[in-house]
């Protein structure tokens, strides 16, 4: 990595705040597949090809969703610093590695914008793989979370009882496919389980094993720590499918922006979330999920949400200096 220092307009502290915030975004198996270049007040979010998942994410869908989530965090931190922001997805045909370009405008003289008020939730938001409380999430809260996704050009479809029943069947098929896919399991072993430093999902963050079949993803794929705790999970969590109008690379990135905006909004109401994305990682199963939400909607992410029974466990993060390629 070469960092070029020119005549920066942003201070070292500001860059640290922006990139530390970006690094708190969710990504598949916590690979953190992003790098950054800063030119004046323009921040480019780039794909790091060394942090992709060719076996589990061959199309790059989940990687692009992670890049979008990181970009949203940059905008949140910038708003907290009172910068106005605009962005462009895939801004340079000659640089296909740049997923998002964020433009920092003038400083706002008024109070912090609504996006900036989410800054305090960045470190509170964690992927929670433990049991949820039986307490129902109000329709008002669900609508606020949905509105956050809509603000980024995506939609959240909350599933009813029949759709959740069918989703269980889809998940069962996905889990069976995973257990018999040696390439996926080998790749996952490089990122999940054991002790982790800087990236990946350590065993401590996998959550307990469910005592009965339930709507939760076990990233260990059945090969976890024998000393791992077991727990009774909730029978009926809130389940939402994040959808976009189009199923292409641009909308995958847009889905990441929407996902993170929704997750941070959920965190303000003490709602925790994890993912059931195994049901959209296989093309035939993704088509079945699309049947649940309507053929005009393209499913990108499946979210399990509710009030957590326990505190979520942290996952490691790279130092922001390690993700900065150029600053001038």
Describe the structure.
The structure is a single chain. The protein has 328 residues and is α+β, with helices and mostly antiparallel strands. It has two domains: 12-125 and 315-327, NADH Oxidase (3-Layer(aba) Sandwich), CATH 3.40.109.10; 139-306, NADH Oxidase (3-Layer(aba) Sandwich), CATH 3.40.109. It has helices at 12-22, 61-80, 139-150, 161-179, 182-189, 249-268, 283-293; strands at residues 34-39, 42-47, 83-89, 98-107, 155-158, 209-210, 230-231, 238-244, 272-275, 298-306, 324-327. A five-stranded mixed beta sheet has the order 3-4-2-1-11, covered by helices on one side. Strands 5-8-10-9 form a four-stranded antiparallel beta sheet, with helices on both faces. A two-stranded parallel sheet has the order 6-7. α2 (61-80) crosses α6 (249-268) and α3 packs antiparallel against α6 (249-268). It starts with 11 loop residues before the first helix and ends with a strand.
Question: Layout of helices and strands, plus pairs?
Answer:
Layout: H1 12-22, E1 34-39, E2 42-47, H2 61-80, E3 83-89, E4 98-107, H3 139-150, E5 155-158, H4 161-179, H5 182-189, E6 209-210, E7 230-231, E8 238-244, H6 249-268, E9 272-275, H7 283-293, E10 298-306, E11 324-327
Parallel strand pairs: 1-11, 6-7
Antiparallel strand pairs: 1-2, 2-4, 3-4, 5-8, 8-10, 9-10
């Amino acid at each position: 990595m070469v960092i070029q220092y020119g005549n920066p307009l942003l201070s070292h502290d500001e860059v640290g705040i922006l990139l530390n915030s970006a690094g708190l975004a969710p990504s598949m198996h916590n690979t953190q597949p992003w790098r950054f270049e800063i030119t004046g007040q323009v921040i480019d979010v780039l794909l790091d090809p060394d942090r992709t998942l060719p076996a589990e994410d061959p199309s790059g869908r989940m990687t692009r969703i992670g890049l979008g989530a990181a970009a949203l965090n940059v905008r949140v931190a910038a708003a907290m610093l009172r910068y106005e922001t605009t962005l462009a997805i895939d801004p340079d045909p000659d640089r296909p590695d740049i997923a998002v370009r964020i433009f920092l405008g003038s400083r706002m003289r008024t109070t912090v914008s609504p996006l900036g008020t989410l800054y305090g939730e960045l470190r509170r938001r964690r992927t929670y793989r433990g049991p949820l409380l039986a307490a129902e999430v109000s329709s008002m809260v669900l609508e606020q979370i949905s509105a956050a996704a809509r603000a980024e050009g995506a939609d959240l479809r909350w599933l009813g009882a029949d759709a959740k029943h069918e989703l269980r069947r889809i998940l069962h098929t996905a889990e069976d496919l995973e257990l018999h896919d040696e390439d996926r399991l080998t790749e996952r072993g490089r990122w999940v389980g054991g002790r982790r430093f800087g990236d990946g999902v350590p065993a401590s963050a996998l959550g307990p094993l469910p005592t009965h079949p339930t709507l939760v993803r076990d990233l260990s794929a059945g090969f976890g720590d024998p000393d791992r705790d077991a727990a009774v999970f909730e029978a009926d969590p809130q389940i939402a499918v994040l959808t976009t109008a189009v199923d292409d690379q641009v909308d995958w990135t847009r889905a990441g922006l929407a996902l993170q905006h929704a997750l941070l909004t959920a965190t303000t109401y003490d709602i925790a979330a994890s993912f059931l994305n195994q049901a959209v990682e296989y093309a035939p199963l993704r088509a079945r999920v699309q049947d649940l939400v309507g053929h005009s909607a393209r499913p990108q992410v499946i979210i399990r949400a509710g009030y957590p029974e326990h505190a979520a466990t942290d996952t490691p993060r790279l130092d922001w200096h390690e993700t900065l390629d150029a600053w001038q």
